Amino acid sequence: MRASLIQIAVDRDEPVDSRRRRAAALVREQRGSALVVLPELWTVGAFAYDSFEAEAETLDGPTRRAMAEAAADAGVWLHAGSVVERAADGRLFNTSLVFSPEGRLAGVYRKIHRFGFDKGEAVMMAAGEELVTVRLPDATLGLGTCYDLRFPELFRGLVDAGADLLVVPAGWPERRRAHWTLLARARAVENQAYVLACSTAGTHAGVEQAGHSTVVDPWGEVLAEAGAGEEILAVDLDPKRPAESREQFPALKDRRLGLAPPVVRGS
């Protein structure tokens, strides 16, 4: 199973429509891959908060149409990264879209953990409330987005729902790049699952992006890692590997759930 991660560069001088066409062309070039992944908010930039309102789109907006056509033309499963979605009630969401090789919208995930500490995305966007998996012929995708990577309980929930390949598009800043690679490996090891972590290159509203998209196997081995610039990673994955690792080292079977609350003792 070949997976391609498109670490696209985001430049405010490039019009959104132009970047949308360019991303679609890059997806079409991945014919032969089973799965293609784009980063978080690659249309506008994850830190370009001043563009969120203007570039927000409905689920049937221009990005959906362009990515559905690209997925069908390439014959690939496409995780099209995320867009600023404007819901029917006017709220904004950071929303990931997954398409089948026929161009059908197969999965929608609204980011649960919003970044910003009471500013930026955290106040401009509503929080998603549902864990989402998407069943492929040879794997089950578990969907997370960027800041979600810091919350292991989300990914454990995805594994409980059958995920064995965790896909994390991101707009991760360069100044915390060490956390990006560490957390991607941690989520892979603790869940005995592949992690496909696809970030952007370039600069969003003055925030330098980390790049360094990475593919990690269920034992925590980094199979491929990009540099800082625009780049495409193509990696062959063994769909049997997660199940084999869980059988060889059955740590997930030793989980203890439903424990009583901690006892707080006085001095």
Automatic annotation (TrEMBL):
A Pfam entry, by short name: CN_hydrolase
InterPro entries xref list: C-N_Hydrolase, C-N_Hydrolase_sf, UPF0012_CS
CN hydrolase domain ranges (all copies): 1-239
Transmembrane regions: none
GO molecular function: hydrolase activity
UniProt keyword list: Hydrolase
Sequence similarity: Belongs to the carbon-nitrogen hydrolase superfamily. NIT1/NIT2 family.
Protein name: Carbon-nitrogen hydrolase
Protein's organism: Streptomyces spongiicola
